[in-house]
Amino acid sequence: MTPTAVIELGRQAIEVTLLVSAPLFLAALVTGLIISIFQAATQINEMTLSFVPKIVVMFVTLVLAGPWMITMLTDFMRRLFESIPTMIG
User: Fold this and answer.
1) How far apart are the C-alpha atoms of 73 and 23, rounded to whole Å?
2) Helix/strand/coil (H, E, C) string of 47-89?
3) Which distant-in-sequence residues (6+ apart) come within 8 Å of 49 by Cβ?
4) What is the rounded CA–CA span in Å between residue 70 and residue 77?
5) Looking at residue 22, what is its pLDDT?
6) Cα 83–chain centre separation
7) pLDDT at 88 over 90
8) Using one digit for the tens of pLDDT, what is the confidence trace for 1-22?
9) CA–CA dist 54, 21 (Å, integer)
10) CA separation (Å) from 28 to 33, 35, 50, 77?
């Protein structure tokens, strides 16, 4: 296994990780931004006001994007396991 192959494998792993985590991060970011604007407009500084909606939105996002996330991860693992014989020899 060459250093180039190791770097390529690491790059692919990071790419899959970023793609799989992006929907949850974006949902939390947008929800946090909307709640922050709402809190600034109403001057309500309650911590649970930002925490509970984020949890709900992330759960809904996980339910909606979950099948796609699982497909991405299983495809990557399948490709990784299928390439083991070429990496060894």
Assistant:
1) 14
2) HHHHHHHHHHHHHHHHHHHHHHHHHHHHHHHHHHHHCHHHHHC
3) 35, 38, 39
4) 10
5) 96
6) 25
7) no
8) 788 888 999 999 999 999 999 9
9) 15
10) 8, 10, 10, 27
Confidence of residue 62 (pLDDT cuts 50, 70, 90): very high
Amino acid at 57: V
CA pair distance 24, 20, nearest whole angstrom: 8
The residue count for the chain: 89
Domain ranges of the chain: 21-88
Dist CA 4 CA 14 (whole Å): 15
Which pair of structure tokens corresponds to residue 25?
């991060």
What are the C-alpha distances in Å from 85 to residues 74, 80, 82? 18, 10, 7
Asked if residue 49 has pLDDT above 90, the reply is: no
